[in-house]
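Field log, afternoon session.

UNIT: design team B
ACTIVITY: writing a sequence onto a fixed backbone
BACKBONE:
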């Protein structure tokens, strides 16, 4: 009988935990190293589209991840004068589901799927790098040999950097403050507040997203050069002047929030020897399609499927990248393009989004990722809808 294979994973975010669950469920022994002292996620809320929901189904995390989540129905884009310039609808019982979810629920659900299948998660374990022969190196100097090492350690990935995989690291001109605020009774009852709403004002943007019965996810976007708008605690007067019609929102924010500039990462290749990179470490992208986490999870699941078929790890990694990378590259490109109008004059921007949402070819490009069936998902994994 072949020996049980072992994988060491750096990072317990969306990508690392999905891979941990998928490998453990295929009989591998799995250890995840998380630098934080507990499993905690930054970024407050998240949109998970049909492709990401299928990954949850494939690893058995769907029910826990979506419990209490908000099923998306419509997303509106409003101009500086609060007029709707574009509207997208998702019929709740349609073929393409999407949910907005408190991020921590997703992390907890993926961690439960991973540990339930036998994966070990070690918190407070900082990774310093990796060696292509299959060695994970910790910051405390300890070294762990494995059949496979995975760098799922986010944008600043020491695993990726220790292997010299970076082709380009590009900081985009915008970033966002993200946070959760309690959802009021009025917002729970109101017709308008059942939708996702993206409010534009000059180069600033506010994204209003209910994520549960009790919580609303707010993303306040602005150019990196707009230093007053990215201050935390937020400048209530500045944001109220920007959005007088949303003045009720800002005093509720208090000192919540975290600022992140948007980053696009492209690698020469996703692996070297017995070490692979997944998630933001490999392909951080602009958030305009809401697919960074979805792609990270799809690639983490697919990695387990491809390598489970291959005794030769480097050959399996090459086949995995050939299979998965074209869709990720496409998603990065389209997500960047959807951010371009942010710096355009308001009328041109309104024209772009209106055109984009009405043009079937453009819509197909935008939805290619969401409608993709992830490798590793099969119809028998589908969770019945209610
Ligand atoms: C404003 C904004 C909005 C977004 N909205 C969406 C959305 O709606 N939908 C979507 O799908 N995606 C969205 N994304 C993208 C999504 O957040 C990321 O793609 C996703 O979180 C990446 O997951 P990851 O597991 O690769 O990395 P991370 O979530 O960064 O996880 C990496 C983990 O590794 C740990 N770590 C780091 N360094 C080390 C180390 N040296 N040793 C050990 N552990 C380490 C970290 O503590 C962390 O737990 C958005 C991004 C932004 C910026």
């Amino acid at each position: 009988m072949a020996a049980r294979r072992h994988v060491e994973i750096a990072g317990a975010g969306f990508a690392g935990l999905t891979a941990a669950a998928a490998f453990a469920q295929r009989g591998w022994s799995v250890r995840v190293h998380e630098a934080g002292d507990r499993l905690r996620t930054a970024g407050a809320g998240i949109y998970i589209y049909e492709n990401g929901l299928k990954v949850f189904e494939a690893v058995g995390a769907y029910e826990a991840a979506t419990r209490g989540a908000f099923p998306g129905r419509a997303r509106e884009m409003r101009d500086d004068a609060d007029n709707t310039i574009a509207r997208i609808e998702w019929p709740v019982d349609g073929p393409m589901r999407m949910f907005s979810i408190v991020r921590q629920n997703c992390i907890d659900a993926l961690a439960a799927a991973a540990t339930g299948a036998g994966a070990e998660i070690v918190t407070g374990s900082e990774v310093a790098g990796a060696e292509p022969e299959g060695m994970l190196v910790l910051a405390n100097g300890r070294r762990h040999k494995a059949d496979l090492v995975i760098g799922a350690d986010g944008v600043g990935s020491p695993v990726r950097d220790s292997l010299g995989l970076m082709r380009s690291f590009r900081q985009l001109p915008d970033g966002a403050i993200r946070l959760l605020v309690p959802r009021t009774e009025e917002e729970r009852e109101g017709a308008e507040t059942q939708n996702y709403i993206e409010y534009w004002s000059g180069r600033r943007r506010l994204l209003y997203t209910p994520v549960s019965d009790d919580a609303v996810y707010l993303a306040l976007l602005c150019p990196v050069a707009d230093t007053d708008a990215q201050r935390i605690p937020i400048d209530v007067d500045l944001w109220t002047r920007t959005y007088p019609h949303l003045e009720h929102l800002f005093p509720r924010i208090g000192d919540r929030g975290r600022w992140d500039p948007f980053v696009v990462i492209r690698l020469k290749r996703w692996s070297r020897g017995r070490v692979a990179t997944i998630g933001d470490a490999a392909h951080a992208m602009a958030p305009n399609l809401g697919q960074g986490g979805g792609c990270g999870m799809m690639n983490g699941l697919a990695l387990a499927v491809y390598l489970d078929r291959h005794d030769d790890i480097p050959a399996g990694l090459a086949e995995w990248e050939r299979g998965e990378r074209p869709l990720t590259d496409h998603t990065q490109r389209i997500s960047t393009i959807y951010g371009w109008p942010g710096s355009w004059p308001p009328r041109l921007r309104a024209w772009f989004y209106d055109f984009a949402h009405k043009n079937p070819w453009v819509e197909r490009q935008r939805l290619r990722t969401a409608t993709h069936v992830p490798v590793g998902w099969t119809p028998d994994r589908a969770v019945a809808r209610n």
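LOG NOTE: The chain has twelve helices and 19 strands.
NEXT ACTIVITY: expression trials, pending approval
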